[in-house]
Every structure is written in structure tokens, then in C-alpha cells.
């Protein structure tokens, strides 16, 4: 039984019978009561962060600042140094936000890990993603015929490498593909990203001065391809998402076959998350505001003088180099776009302007 300190008007009695005592307290408390006095403060505390840009990284090596940088550290040091972490149940790491509406988090490596974190963050009531742009950011591999160590690439297409049937080459006619798409995955296996947004990304960042290293320069000379020997640059193309860390000229040829089979551009990047994260975003907010930004830290196959296994398991001192420079390059390129969107938010909040 509940006891009230004073008589209630007849209107409140009707509320009690219709809605229960809990609603009665909220509806009939006087303006000076503790319940109504606390309500504005509670509502203010519960107001979600209006996200303008969300930056998704896949891993960090150690701390978010002050040590060897992984995929998140340069972003963190630019936008969130000193920001309070916001825990999200179901996400791998907390989310950080600044006063300008730029938020970011480490989602985890691989399709399941990263997409489950993204789903938890998107559905968390602490955030309002209704007008958000996304930068899916990280390191990657590249085929030597298309890219080089230290380059940074904006995706035009995202293609899932895994949604299909595969079989051993010896069980096929020589030279024929050993991959067949599985029916029913047409809307899951490839995404064409907004060409206007890609155009803006290139317009804003294509002339970014990029870092390089002596070790990367020396390593590139092992490859005969003109693209592999290039200095780092900003480019575009298809990003191939696969939980399988495919490697070697045979697997690279198959990846290119899949990209062309799906009507995408030539693949220039191999990575493990973007298509899965984009599917999660698509189901809640669509893909018009999604970008994928990757920096190449390795070639997806060895040079003509080494086997695939030798390339996968190099001897000491035989690695590509250039990792530190590449993760810095990714942030140098990406922050140009993030900063422009935030600085010109009245022109961007309703959608991507025409380039």
C-alpha cells in the first residue's frame, strides 16, 4: 500500500486508476517537488551526442597516446586527447567524442568483431547518428600491380571476398576460376560508395604531403611493377574485405576476378572489416555517408624471386617497413575530410553537397 502526504485532486485519482501509481507521481507532482526539479537535469544528462563524423579504427598497439602508434593513436591525439571514454555494452572499446561532434572508437579486427562493435555503438542511446558521416580507417595490403607501401586509398567499392563457394584448384580445369558467388547474397557482398563523397574526399586530400621511409623505399625496389615502386600517393579503387588473409598471386588474381564479376572497380586494397561494418550502417542509416580509408603496409604477394610462404614469413630484416609512416599518412589524409565536414556543417548536415 502507498501513502501520500496530501489529498489528490479527482484528476489524479483518474490517472491512478488508468495508468497506475508510477505515472501518478510523475504527472501530479508539484513544480517545486523533488521529482519535477530533478527532471530537467536528468533530461539534460540523457541528451545523446549528435555525431557529425565517426572514425572507426580496428586496433591499437598499446595505449591511445604516448607510445608506438597503431590505427587509432593519431586520430585520438588530434580529436580526443583528454576526452572521457564512453563505455558501450557490446563494443570492444569505449567511444570518445569531442565538443565538435567528432567521435571514434577501436572496433576490433575481422568482420564479426568489428561489425558487432559497430552495431552496439549505433544502437546505443548515448549517440545520435541520424546525420553522421563515417570514416572506416586502418592499414591494409595492396597488389603490387596497383599500389605501393605508404599509399592511402579511398574506396569506391567495398567487396566481400568470402560470400561464395571455393574449391581446390586441382579439382578444376586448369586456369579456370575456383570461386562461384552464392545466390542470395547480392545485397550483402558489394557496396558502391557515394561517388560524390568519394569525389569530395579526393578533392580535399589528394595533394596531402605523405610520409615515407628509407626502408620502404628500399623494399619497393624488390618488385618490378611501376606501381609498386611509386612513392606514397592518395588514390581510389575497390577495397576487398575478407576474414581470410589471402596471399600470393593466385589469390590476388581471384580477388580481381571477384571484383570484376560484381561490376566493381579494380581492387587496390585488401582488408578485413569495411564491407561488414558498412552492412551494419546500411541497415540503420544507409551508406551515402560512408567512407573507407586505408593505408597499405604490405604487398599481398611476394616479389618474383620469393615464394608466397617466404613472403608471409620473412627472415629478420626482410619486412616491408613504413608502418609508422603509413598510419600517420592515414590520419593526415582523413583529417582533411573530417575537419572540412565539421567546419562546414551547415552545408553537410542534410547530405553530401555536390563536389
Automatic annotation (TrEMBL):
Which keywords describe this protein according to UniProt? Signal
Q: Which InterPro entries match?
A: Nucleoside_phosphorylase_sf (IPR035994), Pur_nuclsid_perm (IPR009486)
Q: Which GO terms describe its biological process?
A: nucleoside metabolic process; transmembrane transport
Q: Does the keyword Electron transport apply?
A: no
Query: Is this entry keyworded Transport?
Result: no
Matching entries from SUPFAM superfamilies are given as:
Purine and uridine phosphorylases
Alphabetical list of PANTHER family matching this protein: PURINE NUCLEOSIDE PERMEASE C285.05-RELATED (PTHR38643)
The protein's name is: Purine nucleoside permease
Q: Which organism is it from?
A: Variovorax beijingensis
Amino acid at each position: 500500500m502507498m501513502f501520500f502526504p496530501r489529498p489528490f485532486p479527482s484528476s489524479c485519482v483518474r490517472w491512478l486508476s488508468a495508468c497506475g501509481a508510477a505515472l501518478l507521481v510523475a504527472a501530479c507532482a508539484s513544480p517545486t517537488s523533488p521529482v519535477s526539479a530533478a527532471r530537467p537535469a536528468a533530461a539534460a544528462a540523457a541528451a545523446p551526442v549528435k555525431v557529425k563524423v565517426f572514425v572507426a579504427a580496428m586496433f591499437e598497439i598499446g595505449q591511445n597516446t604516448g607510445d608506438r602508434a597503431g590505427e587509432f593513436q593519431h586520430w585520438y591525439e588530434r580529436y580526443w586527447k583528454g576526452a572521457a571514454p564512453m563505455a558501450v555494452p557490446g563494443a570492444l572499446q569505449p567511444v570518445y567524442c569531442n565538443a565538435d561532434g567528432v567521435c571514434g572508437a577501436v572496433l576490433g579486427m575481422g568482420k564479426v568483431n568489428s561489425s558487432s562493435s559497430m552495431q552496439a555503438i549505433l544502437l546505443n542511446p548515448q549517440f545520435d547518428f541520424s546525420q553522421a558521416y563515417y570514416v572506416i580507417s586502418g592499414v591494409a595490403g595492396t597488389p603490387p600491380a596497383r599500389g605501393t607501401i605508404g599509399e592511402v586509398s579511398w574506396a569506391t567499392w567495398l567487396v566481400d571476398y568470402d560470400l561464395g563457394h571455393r574449391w581446390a584448384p586441382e579439382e578444376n580445369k586448369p586456369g579456370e576460376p575456383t570461386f562461384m558467388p552464392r545466390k542470395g547474397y547480392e545485397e550483402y557482398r558489394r557496396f558502391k560508395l557515394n561517388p560524390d563523397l568519394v569525389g569530395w574526399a579526393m578533392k580535399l586530400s589528394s595533394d596531402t604531403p605523405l610520409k615515407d621511409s628509407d626502408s620502404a623505399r628500399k623494399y619497393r625496389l624488390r618488385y618490378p611493377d611501376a606501381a609498386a615502386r611509386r612513392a606514397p600517393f592518395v588514390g581510389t579503387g575497390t577495397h576487398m574485405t575478407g576474414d581470410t588473409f589471402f596471399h600470393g598471386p593466385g589469390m590476388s588474381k581471384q580477388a580481381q576476378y571477384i571484383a570484376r564479376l560484381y561490376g566493381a572497380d579494380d581492387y587496390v586494397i585488401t582488408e578485413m572489416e569495411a564491407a561488414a561494418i558498412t552492412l551494419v550502417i546500411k541497415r540503420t542509416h544507409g551508406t551515402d555517408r560512408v567512407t573507407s580509408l586505408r593505408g597499405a603496409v604490405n604487398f599481398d604477394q611476394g616479389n618474383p624471386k620469393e615464394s608466397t610462404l617466404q613472403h608471409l614469413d620473412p627472415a629478420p630484416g626482410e619486412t616491408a617497413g613504413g608502418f609508422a609512416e603509413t598510419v600517420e599518412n592515414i590520419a593526415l589524409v582523413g583529417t582533411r575530410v573530417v575537419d572540412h565536414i565539421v567546419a562546414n556543417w551547415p552545408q553537410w548536415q542534410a547530405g553530401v553537397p555536390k563536389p
